[in-house]
Design goal:
Dehydroquinate synthase-like, alpha domain; two-stranded antiparallel sheet; globular; alpha/beta; Rossmann fold; 8 strands; six-stranded parallel beta sheet
């Protein structure tokens, strides 16, 4: 979505249904029955051995049919075309498509389901990104910049089985918290800049509900994020964990799509140019701190910094993986890869020069050095 000033009309979009709790995956046959009697489960490699057996069994017990296919690697054009060809070779085009796995598995499932104009159901196994609820797919072709593809609808169902997500490595939840952490910070910046949101058709400003969802997402993280991380580290499904799951899976997804993104997401895209691997949400969480420095909101910056430090979010370029030998070179590459090239970096109510962005990153390192 390009930078564009919103007009009078307001817009809001969301998945048709969202369910969350222990063993919710067992309700898939009942959910799919709303759309027909057949489904294709596109399953992340990590979970394929388990669910390639369990999914067909649970559908057979309901007198329904479920095909399964393994998905690995990136959500690319090649993978999408491969899956479309696979579906066309089946005895029938399934009535629903189920994505089981991380963000890439969810994204590829949305793209396949949208291609055939069928129902698509997301079953995230970790809470790293906003992919499960959104109406878009990020295409990751080798050697190319990531490309968003917007679909005609959001997922029909999002099914979050917290007996599955609580078993995920804790750093996955840190990534999801980072992505969610940016939601309100970016929402208020974009709103102050009068930028449009992501609602289909374009030109829309956020609704009151949109802005309040973004704020609620932030408030839940501040109140219960630390307790949720402690629970996740010990694989204990507590009420605080369930609340933070909702914040990262539902509130964050609805918040970003219905308000828009800003510098935190724009700067995070630049990490692709560096010799370090940073999970999307983890990078966004770090970049939220940079954005708050640029906005000169030092009170909120200090609150968010303390939170990030407590939950294990990187708060300096050193914690991201840079060293004294490559730090300045990589920071300059990072800034040059996004400044003037990513519209979202400047989706703020203040002017953002190259020096402003560079100095904010260096200030964060200096601040972290004193606090860590």
């Amino acid at each position: 979505m390009p930078s564009e000033k919103a007009k009078d009309a307001r817009g809001f979009q969301s998945p048709s249904r969202y369910v969350q709790g222990p063993d919710e995956i067992k309700k898939l046959p009942k959910i799919v029955k709303n759309y027909g009697g057949t489904a294709l489960a596109i399953i992340d490699t990590f979970f394929y051995q388990r669910f390639s057996v369990e999914i067909p069994q649970m559908f057979a017990e309901a007198d329904m049919a479920a095909y399964v296919v393994e998905f690995s690697g990136a959500c690319s054009d090649a993978k999408l075309n491969e899956l479309i060809a696979y579906c066309k070779a089946l005895p029938e085009i399934p009535d629903a498509f189920i994505g089981i796995g991380g963000g890439q598995a969810c994204d590829i499932t949305k793209a396949v389901g949208a291609y055939f104009r069928k129902a698509f159901i997301m079953v995230p196994t970790a809470l790293t990104t906003d992919a499960p609820t959104s109406a878009s797919t990020i295409i990751n072709n080798p050697g190319e910049q990531n490309r968003p593809v917007n679909h005609y609808k959001n997922p029909d169902y999002v099914v979050v089985d917290t007996n599955i997500t609580i078993q995920a490595p804790p750093h996955m939840l840190i990534s999801g918290i980072g992505d969610a952490l940016a939601t309100y910070v970016e929402a208020r910046a974009s709103f102050a800049n009068n930028n449009v949101n992501y609602v289909g058709g374009g030109g829309y400003r956020p609704t009151l509900l949109s802005m309040n969802i973004a704020k609620l997402c932030f408030d839940v993280l501040m109140e219960k994020g630390r307790a949720a991380m402690l629970a996740a580290k010990n694989h204990l499904r507590t009420p605080a964990y369930e609340d933070v799951v909702e914040a990262t899976a539902l509130l964050s997804g609805l918040g970003f799509e219905n308000t828009s993104v800003s510098m935190a997401h724009g700067l995070d895209a630049g990490f692709e140019s560096l010799p370090i691997r940073v999970l999307h949400g983890t990078g966004v969480g770090y970049c939220t701190l940079v954005q708050l420095i640029v906005e000169n909101d030092l009170e909120l910056f200090e609150q968010v910094f303390d939170f990030c430090k407590d939950v294990g979010m990187p708060v300096s370029t050193y914690q991201l993986g840079l060293t004294d030998e490559n730090r300045m070179e990589c920071i300059n590459i990072l800034v040059d890869s996004v400044h003037g090239k990513r519209w979202s970096v400047s989706n703020l109510p203040v002017h953002v020069s190259r020096d402003t962005l560079l100095n904010a990153i260096l200030y964060l390192d200096a601040y972290a050095a004193e606090r860590l």
